[in-house]
Amino acid sequence: MTAPYPYPTQAVILAGGQGSRLRPYTDDRPKPMVEIPGTGTPIIGHQLAWLAAEGVTDAVVSCGHLAEVLQDWLSQTQLPLRVTTVVETEPLGRGGGLKYAAASLPRPDEPWYATNGDIWTRFSLREMADFHHERGADATLALARPRIPWGAVETDEFGHVLDFIESPPSPYLINAGVYVFSAAFTGLLPARGDHERTTFPRLARERRLAGFPLPHGAYWRAIDTAKDLTEAAKELGDQRV
């Protein structure tokens, strides 16, 4: 089916976090440069390949911690799309950092994708863009239902234990760290601070913020700790998603 509007062809990757909970892996590289064992590529390499496969031709990477390591890797790697890097000279917060990076997008009058630099996932961004467009949203965030890291206990109304469920899916959806933004959204971001405490609540009140549940079976994981690396390697196995 042909979309009645152009799909986004530009994106921002937020790659400036300290990654302190991933030490020692982040002692000599930024978080997006960490490799999940068995994948053969750092997280950001996977993200760039995914974005390119979804029709993105230009990406802006917002760097911070050990920015030069990431910039060196980008300059020495054959990339599937054009990449520009920006470095914050002072902390701007998540919203301010997003706005600063968006200023370097080549087509400011067109919609754009954004993703956190520590996310390993793959699903149809075009389907998400369709969802965003159909709802007339200024911003759409992908929603994931992660598995609870503990076993759950199922009981009846009398308190009898019925079953034990290992790592069940959470009953709640969470922000998956992948977004579609309208061109106008950039102007709604704060110059400093957190857009999730300012811009997003405002858009939600005005019904201009949409939530796109990840398709059934889509793989998603945020890489925050060494345990995440181990579990992601086990989950991915030979899937290579």
Highlighted features:
alpha/beta, transferase activity, single chain, 7-stranded mixed sheet, Mannose-1P_guanyltransferase, 241 residues, transferase, Spore Coat Polysaccharide Biosynthesis Protein SpsA, Chain A
Strand content: 15-25%
Number of distinct beta strands: 11
Please tell me what the overall shape is: globular
Give the CA-CA distance, first to last residue: 25 Å
The Rg value, from CA coordinates, equals 19 Å
Helix content: 10-25%
Task: Supply the number of helical segments.
Answer: 6
The strand order across the widest sheet is 3-2-1-4-9-6-10
| CATH architecture assignment name | Alpha-Beta Complex
InterPro entries: Mannose-1P_guanyltransferase, NTP_transferase_dom, Nucleotide-diphossugar_trans
Keywords: Transferase
GO molecular function, one term: transferase activity
Domain Nucleotidyl transferase: 11-237
